[in-house]
Design goal:
This protein has a domain of about 90 residues: von Willebrand factor, type A domain (Rossmann fold, 3-Layer(aba) Sandwich), CATH 3.40.50. The chain is built from 7 helices and 3 strands; from the N terminus they run ααβαβαβααα.
């Protein structure tokens, strides 16, 4: 935990942010993991400094892949400009937080429903849909606010 806090404190924004491409890589890794452990709840936790500005994959496509494969995306951002990631997070049934400071952010990781998605009041279904069959209206959920549980 101390190393994590040190790394976060020393982090600085700079260069391009390819959040959607990183999520795509995460989905690929989790799908490989699911082959060996089919009953596992799949989850991506994203810690980021801002909005995507250099991905090749489109937000609609990565949202469809995440939802179709029943992956929960939880995100922790340090910028209120992270609307795209927040929207995809909510589409997945996950939670998106934008804590005001490091102390508030670290306290989030003491909350049971953040530590374990099994503790959340939501259905956990590991069946897979075809990506092409998933319809997500990102515009309709774009203005949903950041989550505040535990802040």
């Amino acid at each position: 935990m101390n190393m994590f806090i040190h790394l976060v404190d020393d982090a600085s924004a700079g260069g391009g942010t390819s959040i959607y491409d990183a999520l795509d890589e995460g989905v690929n890794s989790l799908l490989e993991f699911r082959k060996k452990h089919p009953s596992t709840i799949l989850r991506i936790i994203a810690l980021t400094d801002g909005e995507d500005n250099s991905s090749k994959i489109k937000p609609e496509e990565i949202a469809r892949r995440i939802v179709a494969n029943r992956i929960i995306l939880d995100s922790f951002v340090v910028s209120h400009d992270s609307v795209g990631l927040k929207t995809i997070t909510h589409a997945s049934g996950g939670r998106c937080y934008c804590p005001e400071d490091l102390i508030s952010g670290m306290k989030l990781f003491e909350i049971e429903t953040i530590l374990s998605v099994a503790a959340r009041d939501m259905p956990l279904n590991n069946s897979k849909m075809e990506v092409k069959d998933v319809k997500i209206d990102l515009e309709a959920i774009k203005n949903k606010p950041f989550d505040t549980e535990g802040l």
